[in-house]
């Protein structure tokens, strides 16, 4: 089931729901995400950051394991393997070479000119191999995998220019969302979302979704956010469950017993999010 990303995002855009991207931080995540998506009859995107790719054994191991796990589970819902916040053109190309379905090129640290130039290179290579590309304009705030960015609202004209000049399949316009926990209330740029939606048919991606209320989320979806990225919410659920079993059982050392509640917590969180974004029962 090598499902190109644009298929899942186009269907979501048409039917006013969003496909969640869940970041994996270990093999337990992958199994929990895919099994829950299947049980919930929902399309799903598995995200891997550059750092987790290196930590877990590389692009090929991830890509092959993703395929094998889909087979073993007998997955019938669309599942996409995606490189999240690819830091260089070369990393994106390596993901394509390994068989990823989709890549994000994160040029948020560069000038818009350099961002466009690099995104264009990634698009040329990825599209030749049937792989979709996500770009970022402005800068999502907060910290992910130790990489910190100041929140910088996207300039709407820069968004339009990048879309036109690169041919990207989806765009993450930084409009107030933040990686990790929010300090205070999230302040999303709905006016900007609405204006941008008027000028392009490209699906939008909402980063930093952990901590955003259901109301704000629905509004963002109605303005064309067809992909919603979750990492922190899963990690909080996993760590709370894991901490609970360790603290409650001082003599426990059997890894399978220790890891079980964390996996269950991940499954529950994935199911909750699939309902929240409307992806539940779309397949
Ligand atoms: P959160 O960690 O805030 O959920 O953000 C996830 C994300 O944007 C991954 O790219
Ligand atoms: Zn992100
Ligand atoms: Na967040």
TrEMBL record:
CDD domains: TBP_aldolase_IIB
Cofactors: Zn(2+)
Transmembrane intervals: none
Pfam families membership: F_bP_aldolase
Record-linked SUPFAM superfamilies: Aldolase
Family annotation (InterPro entries): Aldolase_TIM, Class_II_FBP_aldolase, FBA_II
Taxonomic superkingdom: Bacteria
Protein name as catalogued: Ketose-bisphosphate aldolase
């Amino acid at each position: 089931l090598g499902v190109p990303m644009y298929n899942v995002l186009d269907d979501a855009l048409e039917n006013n729901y969003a496909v969640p991207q869940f970041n994996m931080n270990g093999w337990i995540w992958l199994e929990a995400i895919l099994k829950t998506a299947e049980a919930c009859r929902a399309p799903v995107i598995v995200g891997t950051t550059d750092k987790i790719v290196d930590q877990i054994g590389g692009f090929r191991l991830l890509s092959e394991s993703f395929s094998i796990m889909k087979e073993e589970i007998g997955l019938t819902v669309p599942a996409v393997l995606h490189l999240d916040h690819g830091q260089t053109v070369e990393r994106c190309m390596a993901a394509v070479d390994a068989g990823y379905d989709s890549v994000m090129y994160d040029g948020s640290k560069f000038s818009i000119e350099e961002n466009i130039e690099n995104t264009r290179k990634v698009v040329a290579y990825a599209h030749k191999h049937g792989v979709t590309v996500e770009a970022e304009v402005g800068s999502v705030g907060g910290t992910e995998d130790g990489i910190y960015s100041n929140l910088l609202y996207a300039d709407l004209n820069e968004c339009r220019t990048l879309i036109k000049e690169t041919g990207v399949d989806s765009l993450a316009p930084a409009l107030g969302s933040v990686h990790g926990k929010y300090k205070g209330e999230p302040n999303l740029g709905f006016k900007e979302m609405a204006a941008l939606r008027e000028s392009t048919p490209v699906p939008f991606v909402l980063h930093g979704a952990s901590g955003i209320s259901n109301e704000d989320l629905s509004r963002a979806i109605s303005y064309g956010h067809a992909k919603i990225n979750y990492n922190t919410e899963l990690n909080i659920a996993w760590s709370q469950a894991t901490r609970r079993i360790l603290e409650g059982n001082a003599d426990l050392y059997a890894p399978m017993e220790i890891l079980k509640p964390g996996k269950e917590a991940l499954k529950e969180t994935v199911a909750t999010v699939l309902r929240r974004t409307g992806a539940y029962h779309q397949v």
